Amino acid sequence: MRKKILSVAILVANCVSGYAQQKPKDYTQEISGTKLSFTMAGVPGGEFMMGSKSGNADEAPVHKVKLSPFWIGTHEVTWDIYEPFLYKDYEKTHSTSPVPANVDAVTRPTKPYLDMTFGMGKAGQPALAMTHYNAIQYCKWLYARTGVFYRLPTEAEWEYASRAGASTEYFFGSDAASLDQYAWYKGNSDNKTHPVGQKKPNPWGLYDIYGNVAEWTYDQYLPDFYTQKQAENPVAVPEKLYPHAVRGGSYSDEASMLRSAARMASDPSWKQLDPQIPKSNWWFPEAPFVGIRLVRPAVPPSKEEIEAYYNKAPISDY
Questions:
Q1: Cα(300)–Cα(151) distance, rounded to whole angstroms?
Q2: What is the pLDDT of residues 105-137, one digit of tens each?
Q3: For residue 302, is it within any domain?
Q4: What are the distances in angstroms from CA 240 to CA 18, 190, 219, 284, 315?
Q5: Interacting residues of 190 by C-beta distance below 8 A, sequence separation 6+
Q6: Range of the domain at 65
Q7: How far, in Å, CA of 276 to CA of 119, rounded?
Q8: What's the predicted TM-score (pTM) here?
């Protein structure tokens, strides 16, 4: 019980009173010891109606949710800022100073036996096919590098940020006809990812929030989770290996899967070809469509809570 309460405390980020807080200032995060950086957009605390009346059964019922303020990545995590975590040698050659001991000590992914770009390219392209555990360990590496607590968004945070104040199916309305302006999806992607930031952002400055790669959330995927109607900073704390909730749709999905309320679940079939026993904790060789977008809570959790978030042991996958 203690661990579950602690996990929730991390994610709600020490909820502060009142939800109409001002938007935190946007900023650029330098990755210490490298020439790399990424940008974060501030999202004000507030409330919105989560879910959809016209979508799938797991999007109901529509219910009011209140959220504390946070920052969210303006872009999906690219190979440029992910690969130094992936390979120690790559990190050393791309660092401007010696790699600190605490960074060097972070557990890295096992070397994949496939080309995890799947031939779609690296420069400016979204990193992909990492597991939920892998995504959290990347956040841990960033924390070691920057001293800033980054994590995965909750489902509620992701949907709130993608809507950017809208109550329609997409942030631009309910007609998918305009989707080409904002997203790479099955109708225009040529069945591959594209460099981030080529399409128009949503009103809160988020690029590729729909399409390109689908994005991990922290939550366990529970099809009936909305019936619990958690009103403040809701999160389905993950306790099982499968499934986790994925949002936003990808380059290979139909327009309907890119709606703000649309939910997707990770699946064991994403590792079907993995020859290892147990299967890799790090990679989904049959999921070249899932990636990461970072979140930072406006009020950081304690060091104890941060360590609990990053240091949960992986669950063996047989």
A1: 11
A2: 999 998 887 899 999 999 999 999 999 999 999
A3: yes
A4: 33, 35, 10, 17, 8
A5: none
A6: 2-157+216-242+266-310
A7: 23
A8: 0.94
